Amino acid sequence: MVIGDVDCTSDGGKEVCNDAGVKGYPTIKYFTAETGEDGESYSGARDFAGLNKFVEEKLAKGCDVKDTTTCTETEVAYVEKMKGKGDAAAIAKELTRLTEMLKTGKMAADKKTWMVQRMNILKQL
Asked: Angle at CA 69, nearest 5°, toward 65 and 70?
């Protein structure tokens, strides 16, 4: 997860803010595979407790390989497949492959989501 701060009044920040559709200040936006490249505006509490709760409940959810009840059926199958390889080198190689694929360009949101989910699983193994 990355948290960034952009000064929309600076020369470098204006383009970023325009691209993200920021119209007013302060604006908080979050970006996930589900929100797509446009992201979604955050309108909840601005204090630490409120922001932290939002992150934990909305953004930090994911498959935990130690407790697969938090995983989808597809994720569970992938966990088992990768555990079956039993080789740290194979897991590292797959993580590198997926990381490079993610950098190469645009892909459908569902494919990007699945790729990020697999990377999350691999990082835990």
From this structure: 70
Residue 84's identity, in one-letter code, is G
| Tens-digit pLDDT profile for residues 9-64 | 899 889 988 888 888 888 898 887 677 777 888 899 999 999 888 887 778 778 89
Residue with tokens 């950098």: 103
C-alpha span between 47 and 85 (Å, rounded): 44
pTM for the structure as a whole? 0.58
Coil, strand, or helix at residue 4? coil
Strand partners, 42: none
Angle among Cα 80, 82, 85 to the nearest 5 degrees reads: 110
Beta bridge mates, 64? 67
Residue 19: helix, strand or coil by DSSP? helix
Neighbour tally for 1: CB within 10 Å:
7
Token pair of 6, please? 């952009």
What interhelical angle do 73-85 and 88-103 show, nearest 10? 130
Q: What is the 3 state secondary structure string of 83-119? A: HHHCCHHHHHHHHHHHHHHHHCCCCCHHHHHHHHHHH
